[in-house]
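Researcher: I'd like a structural prediction for the single chain below. Treat it as a standalone chain; there are no partners to consider.
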Amino acid sequence: MSKQFKHSLEEKLDAIRLYNRIGNMAEVARVLDVCPSLVNAWVMQYQLRGPSSLIPKSTIQSYGPEVRIAIVEDLRNKNVSLREASAVFGISTKTISRWMQLAEERGFTALFDRIPKNHIPGMPRKKKKDEPLTELEQLREENMRLRAELALIKKVDALVEKRCKPTRKSVRKPSKD
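Model: Treating it as a single chain, here is the predicted structure.
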């Protein structure tokens, strides 16, 4: 697989030229030592939006809720794959997948919230160490910890009960004869 994570515009264009000559994505990927799906994404982006779509982004893009909702609706209504949507909109499949998951779990209103990278929905954001927690935040953390402990205890109890419970075969009623 690829030894680097960022690829220059020239590397991407070379891959597309090679693909146009060979016509086999797997072979191009093997020659360039990259993932075939990456070559596929470059080719699709190039075909749909031209060479400017292959220019590496130097800054982190931010997409408003209207854009997020439009993309999620497109995926739902038009039977478009994540890869196709990624190529069309120039947004990573991981980002679009996260938007889809949020919309499924919490509805479209969740797409209006700021969505930090690498944040698991439902988990509180950690503050910097130098910032003291408010009393409410401390109570919420303790509440979450206690809920997790309770859930663990319930699971352990259920497992113990399952192991200790006699099986149906061993419990027999006395015969009436």
